[in-house]
Specification:
Helix content is 73%, strand content 0%. The chain has 179 residues and is mainly alpha-helical.
């Protein structure tokens, strides 16, 4: 059932279905006899269900458990979103900074998540240097999209970049070199 819901766009019916599934996944991951090889997959699905249903405290806890097993840029993004949605801005800034710094080089997907983190940091209340975060994000996104114009995460982050720049004064925008 979850695989079916996972690939569909979010709808109220899917949220109801996921809310019904969450207790079953919570039971599964709490069972010490559950096969270890399937534990991480169940925990991953529980975190995704929690995110899609707005159960952000559950999502945060589940993602933190996953991060204890193995860190990834996508998990850090999920953790940052769950923290932001709970109003835990200082914690989310630390996660975003770690994501932006650690994953700015390496695989393409990780760089796209790092660019997203830079864009989020630029929007953080009290950010002293939003243009520098935007510029870093722009460079990452340009490299990614030059190599793969269909990269979903990079296109999403670039769309976010464009929306963030709308209405921004020219002195707050990064320099865009002509090439």
């Amino acid at each position: 059932v979850f695989k079916h819901v996972e690939v569909l766009p979010a709808s109220p019916d899917d949220v109801d279905l996921l809310k019904a599934i969450i207790p079953h996944y919570e039971e599964i991951v709490a069972n010490p006899d559950f096969p270890k090889k399937d534990f991480v997959k169940a925990l991953e699905r529980l975190s995704l269900a929690a995110m899609r249903t707005g159960e952000y405290p559950l999502a945060e806890g589940t993602v933190r458990r996953l991060l204890q097993k193995s860190e990834s840029a996508s998990l850090l993004k999920r953790l940052a979103i769950s923290l932001i949605c709970q109003g835990k801005l200082s914690e989310s800034v630390k996660v975003l900074e770690h994501l932006a710094e650690r994953y700015a080089s390496g695989p393409v997907d990780d760089r796209a998540f790092a660019a997203w983190a830079d864009l989020m940091l630029a929007k953080t209340p009290g950010c002293a240097v939003p243009a520098s975060y935007r510029q870093k994000a722009l460079y990452l996104l340009r490299d990614i999209l030059a190599a793969d114009p269909r990269h979903n995460e990079a296109n999403s982050a670039y769309a976010q970049y464009l929306m963030d720049c709308a209405g921004t004064s020219a002195d707050m925008l990064p320099d865009i070199p002509a090439d």
